[in-house]
Amino acid sequence: MTEFPEFMKRAGRPVDAAQQNTADVEGYWFDGAEGQMAFWTCRDARESQPHIHDFDEYMVVLDGEYTLCTDAGETVLRPGDEAVILRGTRQWGRCSTGTRTIHVFGGQRIRP
């Protein structure tokens, strides 16, 4: 599978480009009781802007390759690899063409 199923896109809300830390990625999000879940598709290689969340973040790579960068160094994540990014950690990353990721946030990452 190289695309998220259409029902996920229909059920989710598109992430507004103004709230993306990575230009030109396709993202959708869902609200949860105590946080949010989002999934992104990076159709072209991109680098995200450094940013910090005031909540923890979990991510898993489904396709492609994502290099997670923090002030402590870089970690290359490939399909099936997971990461937890603790609140207050300055982070950014690089995704290869065709990368798909799922993220769960312990707070409100995306504003309606």
Features:
112 residues, mainly beta, six-stranded antiparallel β-sheet, four-stranded antiparallel β-sheet, 1 helix, 10 strands, 5% helix, globular
Give the overall pLDDT as a whole number: 95
Question: Strand tally, please?
Answer: 10
> DSSP strand (E) fraction?
35-45%
**Low-pLDDT stretches:** none
Question: Strands of the largest sheet, in order across it?
Answer: 1-2-3-10-5-8
Morphology call: globular
Number of helices: 1
Quick structural overview:
The protein is mainly beta and 112 residues long. Helices cover 5% and strands 45% of the residues.
Explain the layout of strands and helices:
Blueprint: H1 6-11, E1 13-14, E2 26-31, E3 36-42, E4 46-47, E5 57-63, E6 66-70, E7 73-77, E8 82-85, E9 91-95, E10 99-105
Antiparallel strand pairs: 1-2, 2-3, 3-10, 4-9, 5-8, 5-10, 6-7, 6-9
